[in-house]
Amino acid sequence: MTSPEEDAERLRAEIERTREQLSENVQALTYKADVPARAREKLQDTKDAAQDRVRQLTGQAAAKLPEPVRERGQQAAVAVRQRPAPALAAAVAMPLLLLLVRMLRRRRRWAAVGAAGTPVSTSAPSRRRRRPRSVLPAR
Description:
This protein has helices spanning 4-33, 35-64, 67-82, 84-111. It is an all-alpha fold.
């Protein structure tokens, strides 16, 4: 038989192990229940992997470029870092310009809708060939 002190010590050790297991289970459940935090972690991992891949591919592409082209690209990058406003303006203006051109073309096409409700070609009008003046009958 065991003494009451040994039984108490064994019970304390078992209680401590149970507490540790319970603590681990609670932490695991908390982690599983915190979906937004897991999504942020996954997003960060994906972002880091993409950035690493971009750095790798950029390095490979830069190694294949001729030296003058590489220097010119580095100069352009430095210029954009020093004064980002013109580059940003160009980056915003180009898609807007393309959108405006597309809208104007579409408007022009539908403005020339024929009687049947179908768009009429907006290309330059075809000109009939005229006979040279020398062939025309005299008036």
